[in-house]
Design goal:
Elements lengths: L1 E14 L5 E14 L3 E5 L6 H8 L7 E6 L2 E2 L3 H4 L2 E4 L11 H12 L3 H14 L15 H12 L6 E5 L7 H16 L3 E6 L2 H5 L4 E6 L2 E6 L9 E9 L3 H7 L5 E6 L2 E7 L5 H9 L3 E9 L2 H11 L4
Parallel strand pairs: 3-8, 3-9, 6-7, 7-8
Antiparallel strand pairs: 1-2, 1-4, 4-5, 9-10, 11-13, 11-14, 12-13
Helix pairs in contact: 3-4
The protein binds adenosine-5'-diphosphate (ADP) and magnesium ion.
């Protein structure tokens, strides 16, 4: 059984006041997500990610096509009990504390008082909210609110969690924390479907991704299998590199950028690989600072794809 399946899922919004015309926000999305996968749903702003998530949550109804979660149509009440959802910009009642808010949600799920206390406390520990749990939410930072939102989404031990841009608006530390939370969900077998406009978020987490632009699926699969994201070359950063050494090997480099005194970023072609050059440079006194494969960025990919699409 699949965790999520959509078939030709489409959504039109009427736009224009005097003569409303349909605007296609999502165009025939066909997608399969296996159970236990951490799936990245990527695309630039306006691509249709939130629309898709809302269709899956039945906050919107499709113009055409179908969607199933855990083998049941999205409307199935039994399925709702087994999923969790973090909306794009969650808004919570400001004057409740984190503890009160989650306890309220836990009562909606139907947990009794003792179970509620136990769960809420364990959840707040898990998402890293300590003594602040007794503060009113209006005093929370964006990152802390996001963690409360995630706690809310996993309150009922869901089998599938839907997170809409869980990392947006967070600082690097907050991003890392959310990433670790997603990894811990994955480790306990939960299927995670999350949207993002940042490729790096997905690279660190996902078994597979789907890429959406202007409402259409433009690529899907493992990041490393998607042609556009194959390694293009290498970026080698070295220190203590002498001018003579640089001159001697210049032809083996695509591009040279000086960073500091005798420290350079060297762009190398994919073939023959960086090993030989690195060995030669080190032999001539250079020090290795870092070596990384370079890929096309998601942004480049979007720009290129969106440019290719015929106007609608
Ligand atoms: N309720 C709505 N009415 C009209 N257009 C909408 C509505 N919701 C979204 N859209 C449009 O649909 C497109 C997709 O939006 P959205 O799903 O929010 O994209 P994303 O989440 O990928 O940024 C956008 O062009 C947006 O303006
Ligand atoms: Mg969105």
């Amino acid at each position: 059984m699949l965790a999520i399946q959509t078939t030709d899922l489409s959504k039109d919004f009427p736009v224009g006041f005097w003569r409303p015309r349909p605007y296609r926000a999502l165009d025939k999305l066909t997608l399969e997500v296996e159970q236990g996968e951490t799936f990245g749903f990527l695309g630039p702003n306006g691509a249709g990610k939130t629309t898709t998530l809302k269709l899956l949550m039945q906050l919107l109804y499709p113009t055409s096509g179908r969607a199933e979660i855990l083998g049941r149509p999205v409307g199935d009440v039994g399925v709702k009990r087994r999923i969790g959802y973090l909306p794009e910009s969650p808004y919570f009642y400001d004057y409740l504390t984190a503890e009160e808010l989650l306890s309220y949600f836990a009562s909606l799920v139907g947990y009794g008082a003792a179970e509620r206390r136990r769960r809420v406390s364990a959840l707040l520990d898990e998402v890293g909210i300590g003594s602040e749990r007794r503060l009113q939410l209006r005093k929370f930072s964006k990152g802390m609110l996001q963690r409360v939102g995630i706690a809310q989404a996993i309150l009922n031990d869901p089998e599938v969690v839907f997170l809409d841009e869980p990392m947006s608006g967070l600082d690097p530390l907050g991003r890392r924390e959310v990433r670790n939370l997603i990894l811990s969900l994955r480790d306990r077998g939960c299927t995670v479907f999350f949207s993002s406009h940042v490729l790096a978020d997905a690279e660190a987490l996902c078994s597979r991704v789907a890429i959406l632009a202007s409402g259409r699926l433009i690529a899907s699969g493992k990041i490393t299998d998607i042609h556009a994201f194959q390694v293009r070359g290498w970026e080698l950063i070295v220190a203590h590199l002498s001018g003579e050494s640089l001159e001697r090997h210049r032809a083996r480099m695509r591009k040279v950028t000086a960073i500091a005194d005798r420290q350079y970023a060297l762009e190398l072609p994919l073939e023959p690989g960086p090993d030989g050059l690195l060995r030669d440079l080190i032999g001539e006194g250079a020090h290795l600072v870092s070596l990384n494969p370079t890929r096309e960025s998601l942004e480049d990919f979007f720009i290129q794809q969106v440019g290719q699409q015929e106007p609608r």
